Structures are given as structure tokens and as C-alpha cells.
Amino acid sequence: SYVLSQPPSLSVAPGQTARITCGADNIENKRVHWYQQKPGQAPVLVVHEDSDRPSGIPERFSGSNVGNTATLTISGVEAGDEADYFCQLWASNTDRVVFGGGTKLTVL
Amino acid sequence: EVQLVESGGGPVQPGGSLRLSCAASGFTFSTYWMHWVRQAPGKGPEWVSLIDSDGSKTDYADSVKGRFTISRDNAKNTLYLQLNSLRLEDTAMYHCVRDSRSSWYYFDFWGQGTLVTVSS
Lengths: 108, 120
What we know:
The structure holds two protein chains of two kinds.
Chain A: E1 9-12, E2 18-23, E3 33-37, E4 44-47, E5 61-66, E6 69-74, E7 83-91, E8 96-99, E9 103-107
Parallel strand pairs in A: 1-9
Antiparallel strand pairs in A: 2-6, 3-4, 3-7, 5-6, 7-8, 7-9
Chain B: E1 3-7, E2 10-12, E3 18-25, E4 34-39, E5 45-51, E6 58-60, E7 68-73, E8 78-83, E9 92-99, E10 107-110, E11 114-118
Parallel strand pairs in B: 2-11
Antiparallel strand pairs in B: 1-3, 3-8, 4-5, 4-9, 5-6, 7-8, 9-10, 9-11
């Protein structure tokens, strides 16, 4: 089965750039989606299909997907960005949706 | 505004059953595929099941196949998940989610979830 690897945690100072990674073999051949989940809240889609932002999501959130790593980049990190972030894709070979284990972003 | 409100969770013993419901509003429910996604405490999400817009196609994760049944009532704008033969490892928050209609399968709206706790 397809496994997506995310670092469990990442700490960034306010105003700096956070780069959250999601790794898998040849992940660049898939389309990766990212969700933000704050404590006690439902996940919110922040990036879909590698780099597209839904309406209402700030331009500070961007995505890329190259080689074996997809990356969610948050520029000018704010205290309100503190949350868990999950990557997700559809594995066509198994016809299954797969999620990463999540990265907890802490804003120092 | 899209709203998905789950209910029906609670404590249950191993081997027991529960029926989860999800009331949808703010969009034309009958035209969207819907899914259930669960999240065990401290873990990443796990896709559980999907149903197409008219209920004719369903699919399940291997971990729940044969025990869970997804259904919908488009007249009532409600999605259901029947959970039978529950196991300890089914303990999780169960989210009702809307399919984005993309060929790349992602979810554009999530409900807050309803908590299922399987314990003896």
C-alpha cells in the first residue's frame, strides 16, 4: 500500500517560512492535497492538486511537488497557523485515498 | 454556507453497533458523492467509505468491509454509516466529508465529526 511520510512536528518563529513535507516514491506522479486541522475543529482544505488554493485561503499558503517530496509552504507564519497539517492523495494503483500521519506546526 | 453535522456517536462495547448520521445543508446534496473519514486519537485521518450521488455505488476500506454500511437519503439530505461488529480499533472521530468532484479525489468540506468509543 502507498505510505506518505510526514515529520511529526515542526517549529517556526512568527514571520518565518514553514515548509511541511510529504514523502513517497515518485510522489510527483500523483496530485497531493493538504489539510489544516486546528484543535477541536474539522480539517480545512488549504491546497489541492499540488499547488491550487481554494477560495478564502491566504496566498501565504502554497504547494509544490517534485521528485519524491511534496511540500506545503507557509510564508510569514502567524500564530493562527498553529495546527496539524495532513497531506493526502489518491493512489490509482490501489484505487484508494491515502493520508499522511500529519505534522504538528508550532509557532514559537 | 456548506454545513455537515454528524451525530450518533457514543460509547459502545466490542461487538456492538451504532448508526451515524450526517445532516447536510447549503448545497445540492443529491448531486455530490460523499465519504466517511475517521481519525483515531493522535493519528492521521483514514478513509472509511464512499457513496455516489444516487447511492448506486459504494466502496469501503478493507479494515471495515463487511462490517460497515454506507447509505444516503437524498430526500432528507442525510448520509448514514451503519457500524456493526465494532472493534477496539474502530475508536475514532468519524467525519462526514464532501467529495470535491475532482478526478484526483480530495475533500472540500468536512463536518466536525462524531466520536465513537469502543471499550469494554
